[in-house]
């Protein structure tokens, strides 16, 4: 190959590399589809913008009927796909509805059904041209639409869960098990609830005495879902919780060694702070199976013991930090 041939080859490689770099820097546009009709529209849009400096990303999404809720889902999916612009479609009678969002700016266009033998094809073509026109405007330094649309108001919804809980308190290798309930409300990604837990009495045994101890607690918890909401089609949620409660430990000494006096029954208590992480899997539109893993920080760990002739003999002290797990059925009408 002569010098001319090598020069042409190098130029071709440089052009290809430049095109690849330009495509990598292109504006990302997400097309949300829900059904075959939307996929046909997305395919026409993709064809119309093939010559523009844009990178098309397509994703399925079950959009709610309310336009405000659609916008919330579209914004969330755009963030997941790192897209600057998100486009989705709808229908109103015989007309197509085209919506596009760029940050706080939203475009809404109606495309009436064209009559004639090629009516469906012409309407689909019109949708593609609308999106192309907007993207060309962005390339020229413009913005989507001509007004800022605030995010939709998010309704407060009921939220509750009931399930098993277990804590490793250092006294039983299998842990101290019980039931837990939470009742409250959720707003978007945020949750808040009153919490209740009950652990039936377990036995603390030693050569000195046998003591039966319950655990009862009541408090509040606040949580944030990091992944999942507000997309109603999400199957998984990942989140964090922070709880604060007052825990009581009613105890009864059932036996004491020779020369020892059982301590009077009482109910010591401790403030408890519980940070945790949680994952939830959707079982139905309103029910989730959730698992949380965290730790109880007992600010005043109670001591249990018996009286001797010279004072108090400690039998057990609960750990100041106790690993905790929660497996629950959650109701969330999101």
Describe this structure in a few short sentences.
This protein is an alpha+beta fold and about 325 residues long. Helices cover about 20% and strands about 50% of the residues. It is built from 4 helices and 17 strands.
What's the overall geometry? rod-shaped
Proportion in helices? 10-25%
Return the structural class: alpha+beta
Order of helices and strands: HEHEHEEEHEEEEEEEEEEEE
Proportion in β-strands: over 45%
| Poorly predicted sequence stretches spanning 5 or more consecutive residues | 16-24
Report the biggest beta sheet as strand number plus sense, adding barrel if it closes: 8 strands, antiparallel, barrel
Mean pLDDT: 82
Physical arrangement of strands within the biggest beta sheet: 6-7-8-9-10-13-14-17
Q: What is the end-to-end distance?
A: 67 Å
Total DSSP E strands = 17
Figure out the total of helices. Answer: 4
CATH class placement of the largest domain: Mainly Beta
**Rg estimate, integer Å:** 31 Å
Number of domains: 2
What descriptive keywords fit this protein?
Rossmann fold; Porin; 4 helices; 5-stranded mixed beta sheet; 8-stranded antiparallel beta barrel; single chain; alpha+beta
């Amino acid at each position: 190959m002569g010098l001319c041939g090598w020069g042409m080859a190098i130029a071709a490689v440089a052009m290809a590399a430049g095109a690849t770099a330009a495509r990598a820097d292109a504006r990302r546009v997400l097309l949300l589809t829900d059904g075959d009709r939307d996929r046909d529209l997305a395919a026409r849009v993709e064809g119309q913008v093939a010559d523009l400096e844009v990178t098309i990303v397509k994703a399925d999404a079950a959009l709610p009927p309310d336009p405000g809720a659609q916008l919330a889902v579209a914004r969330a999916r755009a963030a997941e796909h790192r897209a600057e612009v998100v486009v989705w479609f709808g229908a109103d009678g015989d007309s197509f509805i085209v919506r596009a969002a760029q940050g706080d700016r939203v475009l809404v266009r109606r495309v009436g059904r064209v009559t004639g033998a090629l009516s469906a094809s012409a309407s689909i073509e019109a949708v593609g041209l609308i999106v192309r026109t907007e993207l060309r405007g962005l390339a020229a330094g413009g913005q989507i639409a001509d007004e800022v649309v605030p995010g939709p108001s998010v309704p407060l919804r009921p939220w509750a869960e009931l399930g098993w809980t277990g804590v490793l308190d250092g006294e039983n290798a299998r842990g101290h098990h019980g039931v837990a309930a939470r009742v409250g409300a959720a707003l978007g990604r945020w949750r808040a609830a009153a919490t209740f837990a009950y652990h039936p009495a377990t036995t603390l045994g030693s050569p000195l005495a046998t003591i039966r101890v319950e655990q009862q607690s009541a408090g509040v918890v606040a949580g944030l879902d990091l992944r999942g909401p507000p997309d109603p089609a999400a199957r998984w949620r990942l989140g964090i919780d922070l709880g604060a409660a007052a825990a009581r430990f009613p105890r009864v000494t059932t036996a004491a060694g020779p020369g020892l006096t059982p301590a009077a029954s009482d109910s010591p208590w401790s403030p408890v702070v519980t940070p945790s992480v949680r994952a939830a899997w959707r079982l139905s539109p309103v029910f989730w199976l959730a698992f949380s893993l965290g730790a109880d920080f007992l600010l005043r760990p109670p001591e249990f013991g018996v009286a001797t002739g010279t004072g108090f003999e400690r039998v057990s002290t609960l750990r100041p930090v106790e690993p905790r797990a929660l497996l629950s059925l959650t109701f969330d009408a999101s």
